[in-house]
Design a protein that fits this description.
The chain is mostly beta strands. The chain has helices at 2-22, 44-56, 130-134, and strands spanning 26-29, 61-65, 69-71, 75-78, 86-90, 93-95, 107-112, 117-120, 124-126, 149-154, 157-162, 165-167, 174-177, 180-185, 188-190, 201-204, 207-217, 223-225, 230-239, 245-250, 259-270, 276-280, 287-302, 306-309, 326-340, 344-349, 357-368, 377-381, 386-392, 400-403. It has an 18-stranded parallel β-sheet that branches. A twelve-stranded mixed β-sheet has the order 4-7-10-13-16-18-20-22-24-26-28-30. It is elongated and about 65 Å long. It starts with a helix and ends with a strand.
Amino acid sequence: MEYYNKKRLVITLFIFLGYILQAHSVSFSITNYGAKHGGKSDVRQALSKAWKDACTCKEESEIVVPNGLFYLSQMKFEGPCKAPSITFRLQGTLQAHIDPTKTQVGEWITFQYIDFLTIGGGGTFDGQGTKAWTQNNCHKTQSCTKFPYNLSFNFIKHSRVGSVTTLNSKNFHLNLLGCQNFTFTKFTVKAPENSPNTDGIHIGRSKQIYITDSIIQTGDDCISIGDGVEEIHVKNVVCGPGHGISVGSLGKNQNEEPVTGIYIENCTLINTMNGIRVKTWPNSFQTIVSDMHVKDIHVQNVSNPIIIDQNYCPWNKCSLKSPSKVKISKISFKHIWGTTASPMAVKLDCSKSVPCQNVELSDIDLKYNGKQAASAISTCDNVKPAIKGIQRPQLCTKSGTTKSS
């Protein structure tokens, strides 16, 4: 942990220096490039010109989207830049077209190949996803139409997003790929519970990602972690509604990279479909999940607060011919307390092929508050967890099901 604390100090110093540098930065407001607020005319051209000037500037620079409503069809902000750092100051609202067919497949707004990027300002990225949600049939067919994400960050390093909101995305709210040393703080995600596939933050093939002091309300995973992810810290996050915080699903595709170093602490989950979850496909390709540590989690009316599911098979669209080949090890759940909306408080469903190893559960205190005449239960299959401290419900020490007293 000393190594992580030193690295965290470096990141904090970078953020602090970023604020100082912003005070002396060259500012490029989109209104100076002809952008008009009111949401009627596309500001893509104005943003493109402002970005070009800010990116080629040899001084610290910032782009300003002032208060007001601005319609943006689609935009890609691409580096590398000559500016030592760039701030994207969103004070107003950028709004997508409500018709999902008006945006090309992919992402509504993309930032890529940029170092030392800061996004803030208190504004909103409004994806206007309500119409897209009614047309989403991905739960019925794999050949469904893929609607755009609100925000994508590709190959971004040493950067920060804070004090902005992503609202009603048509698909994932935010996707990270190939990023490093990236902090999200005081970040807000908003979408209703019935919005399909609206993951809050999805992370793939990235490392040293920090998500702190944020609120995520959505219709899918609040945070989802894909393959190739290393050293992720999630702290002081409120999640709900949504499907909880998930690692996976993993093992579906060949050559997936290991997931290692996941730290989730001091979070609150409210009315979510799951709590903290690891999910892997049966009949899968080989990969690894290791060094995942979860502690100090408060759950309120959460179904499946603690779950390892190595038979993940949504809508029965997979083969159950052979067990998962994803190896899970060095996993701990410590001080998880609150209420569960389903009797299944703890479910450790590990693979027969590669049983989970070095799993620890400590101070688990979960009470079922649902309508069924039942008590909270736990199940453990293909795993022998180490049990410490409080055990409510009584936790499994061998395969089988144990009911609470």
